[in-house]
């Protein structure tokens, strides 16, 4: 369209920026002069697809308008955004066998597949700009797509109780099981995902392959399922490629540099400490005294995931038994390659981070908001409280 003589690129760019991006997309995601983010609701109030629709628009408008700053807002939100569309919030739990639970799986499968298709669109646009969001967080999106495809193919999948805050004040809701509503709805989203992970990257995606076999050639939206008109489709035509083909993109850098740190909690300035050097040693909060058991070696593993090792013992920080439950304690253990020893540092602003286990998306939490010495560190659903926000102070 840019070269079509009857198309005014400047007018189109102006409309996208002034009618859509500023008053709608930017305002919803991060807030601006038009209003606060998420319509002044609690940050978890809106389902993942609300965020993802605005993220997709942000990235697309940034690209079309040659606005790197707008594009970067969309990419940063994908990695670290506060709402349910960012990758850890949209995909909160890792399960065995290469699966990961989608945020709306307990709601219905129509909205679940809508969100998966939107995240794929975001990743595909970013790939074409040289940024590999498909691979961010160790291919977390692939695991979620496999989970959703498997369930909609008629197979059983694990489900962990999902909690979120709604309304303006964050009233707690929960879902204890996956929803069969709209199960097996045929939605034209899978060819893009399959052709990236399998034919571009050479990875395995057996459940997505089975989903494509059930759907056949991917045309436009399916008249049998009116909700599928949310997505344009024609993925077989647009994205089919031979194995090993396609350009390359780079996974963005992590947001924390490798180094030795102490972790100061925003609640009272005390630090995270290992109370022993043995296997299974407790991790607690204490006043900083310059000791090595209060210092942590942080190493980027790629895709925004990190290992955290105690300087005194060399043992790794982990979630006990790889639990997904509220209240599971942090402890030290011999280093492995297991997900329970991998963490993300997700910015909460003002130099503070959520120290988030990738397995559960439940950040390091000072038990009971206590300011006492020796309080255990556990994982808990993110509440925005200061007992879950940590500043990384470099040890020179």
TrEMBL record:
One Gene Ontology CC term in the entry: periplasmic space
InterPro entries registered for this protein in UniProt: Alginate_lyase_dom (IPR008397), Chondroitin_lyas (IPR008929), Ricin_B-like_lectins (IPR035992), Ricin_B_lectin (IPR000772)
Record-linked CDD domains: beta-trefoil_Ricin-like
GO molecular function: hydrolase activity; lyase activity
Keyword terms: Hydrolase, Lyase, Signal
Family annotation (Pfam families): Alginate_lyase, RicinB_lectin_2
Domain of life: Bacteria
Entry annotated with the keyword Signal: yes
SMART domains (alphabetical): RICIN (SM00458)
Keyword Lyase applies: yes
Record-annotated Ricin B lectin domain positions: 258-393
Record's protein name: Glycosyl hydrolase
Native source organism of the sequence: Paenibacillus polymyxa (strain SC2) (Bacillus polymyxa)
């Amino acid at each position: 369209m840019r070269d079509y003589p009857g198309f005014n690129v400047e007018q189109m760019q102006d409309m996208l920026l002034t009618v859509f991006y500023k008053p709608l997309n930017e305002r919803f995601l991060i807030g601006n002069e038009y209003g606060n983010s998420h319509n002044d609701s609690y940050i978890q109030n809106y389902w993942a697809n609300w965020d993802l629709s605005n993220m997709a628009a942000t990235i697309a408008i940034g690209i079309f308008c040659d606005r790197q700053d707008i594009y970067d807002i969309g990419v940063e939100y994908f990695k670290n955004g506060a709402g349910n569309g960012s990758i850890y919030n949209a995909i909160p739990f890792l399960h065995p066998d290469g699966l990961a639970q989608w945020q709306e799986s307990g709601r219905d499968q129509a909205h679940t597949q809508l969100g998966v298709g939107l995240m794929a669109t975001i990743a595909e646009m970013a790939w074409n700009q040289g940024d590999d969001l498909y691979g961010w967080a160790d291919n977390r999106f692939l695991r979620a797509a496999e989970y959703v495809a498997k369930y909609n193919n008629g197979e059983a999948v694990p489900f962990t109780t999902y909690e979120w805050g709604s309304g303006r004040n964050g009233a707690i809701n929960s879902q204890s099981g996956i929803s069969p509503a709209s199960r097996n709805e045929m939605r034209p989203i899978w060819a893009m995902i399959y052709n990236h992970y399998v034919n571009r990257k050479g990875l395995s995606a057996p459940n997505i392959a089975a989903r494509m076999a059930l759907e056949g050639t991917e045309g436009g939206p399916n008249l049998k399922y009116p909700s599928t008109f949310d997505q344009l489709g024609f993925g077989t035509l647009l994205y089919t490629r031979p194995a090993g083909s396609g350009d390359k993109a780079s996974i963005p850098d992590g947001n924390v540099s490798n180094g030795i740190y102490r972790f100061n909690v925003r609640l009272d300035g005390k630090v995270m400490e290992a109370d022993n050097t043995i296997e299974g040693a407790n991790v607690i909060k204490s006043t900083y005294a310059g000791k090595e058991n209060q210092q942590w070696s942080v190493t980027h593993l790629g895709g925004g995931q990190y290992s955290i090792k105690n300087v005194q013992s060399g043992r790794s920080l982990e979630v006990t038994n790889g639990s997904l439950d509220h209240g599971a304690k942090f402890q030290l253990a011999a280093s492995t390659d297991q997900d329970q020893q991998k963490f993300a540092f997700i910015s909460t602003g003002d130099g503070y981070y959520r120290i988030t286990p990738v397995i559960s998306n439940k950040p390091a939490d000072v038990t009971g908001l206590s300011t006492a010495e020796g309080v255990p560190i556990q994982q808990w659903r993110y509440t925005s409280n200061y007992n879950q926000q940590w500043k990384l102070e470099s040890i020179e």
